[in-house]
Amino acid sequence: EDQVTQSPEALRLQEGESSSLNCSYTVSGLRGLFWYRQDPGKGPEFLFTLYSAGEEKEKERLKATLTKKESFLHITAPKPEDSATYLCAVQGGYNQGGKLIFGQGTELSVKP
Amino acid sequence: KAGVTQTPRYLIKTRGQQVTLSCSPISGHRSVSWYQQTPGQGLQFLFEYFSETQRNKGNFPGRFSGRQFSNSRSEMNVSTLELGDSALYLCASSLVSSGPGNTIYFGEGSWLTVV
After folding, report:
1. Which stretches of chain A drop beneath a pLDDT of 50?
2. CA-to-CA dists, residue A57 to A5, A50, A75, A79, B45, angstroms
3. Alpha-carbon Rg of chain B, whole angstroms?
4. Distance of CA A100 to CAs A55, A87, B17, B98, B105, Å?
5. Which distant-in-sequence residues (6+ apart) come within 8 Å of B21 by Cβ?
6. Within 10 A of B98 (CB to CB), how many other CB atoms are there?
7. Do B43 and A102 lie within an 8 Å CB cutoff?
8. Could you say which of B43, B45, B108 has the minimum Cβ distance to residue A87?
9. Residue-level pLDDT at B98
10. Interatomic CA distance for residues A77 and B62, integer angstroms
């Protein structure tokens, strides 16, 4: 069964303290791994899609990487405005259409 | 460019009633998916529509249904509401179902409270 596990569940950082969020997945035929950011009361905001092991993508202070079993979201010198829940999702199986399977998310809090 | 638009944003219903939620995808997008988000279960896939056809369905009871119109707008319906149906219902749209470069965008969601 396709599954996504994110760790840690919650992460508290001081402003400027770099760290990484982990997303482990089990999927038959990965067609894409997605990272989203979600602020309280809002819908998920798209960050990145990764398609194959070894791929990396960057956006401002965020960098996403992908291996055959997991993905990391690296946050460099975070600011308080980076506080949010970060969601990882996979799209797998050629008969699954556009279905995304989500992890439970990592709640990030960055203190000034 | 307008994003994914969902209406209504907030609604309160009574147990046993039914509810219809609406989603307008990004212009040109043909794939629309629906998700339920709750604190305990996280984001769970409900169903996906592409060119007015349901392509995939999640593990939800038959009380949950949906449809897509020729202009790609979609609606989902929940009949005989239960307290456990209280959740944030999210709509997502993309050009196609999947494939390299196919970004999936979410709307702000419809908050449903069942009392």
Report:
1. none
2. 21, 8, 12, 20, 26
3. 13
4. 19, 11, 29, 10, 12
5. B6, B7, B8, B75, B76, B77, B89, B91, B110, B112
6. 19
7. yes
8. B43
9. 73
10. 47
Q: Are strands A3-7 and A19-26 parallel, antiparallel or unpaired?
A: antiparallel
Dihedral sign, CA of B115, B35, A37, B27? negative
Q: Please write the tens of the pLDDT for every residue from B71-94.
A: 999 999 999 999 999 999 999 999
Six token digits for residue A23: 């997303």
Find the length of chain B: 115
Question: What's at B57, amino acid-wise?
Answer: K
pLDDT at B1: 62
Residues of chain B contacting A32 with CB distance shorter than 8 Å? 98, 100, 102
Q: Do A101 and B45 touch (CB under 8 A)?
A: yes
Residue in chain A nearest B98 by alpha carbon: A98
In this structure, the dihedral spanned by the alpha carbons of residues A89, A95, A98 and A102, taken in order and rounded to 10 degrees, is: -20
Residues A26 and B59: their CA atoms lie apart, in Å, by 19
Closest by Cα among B39, B1, B73 to A107: B39
Which amino acid is present at A75? I
- Contact indicator for A72, A64 with CB cutoff of 8 Å: yes
pLDDT above 90 (res B96): no
Asked if A104's CB is within 8 angstroms of B109's CB, the reply is no
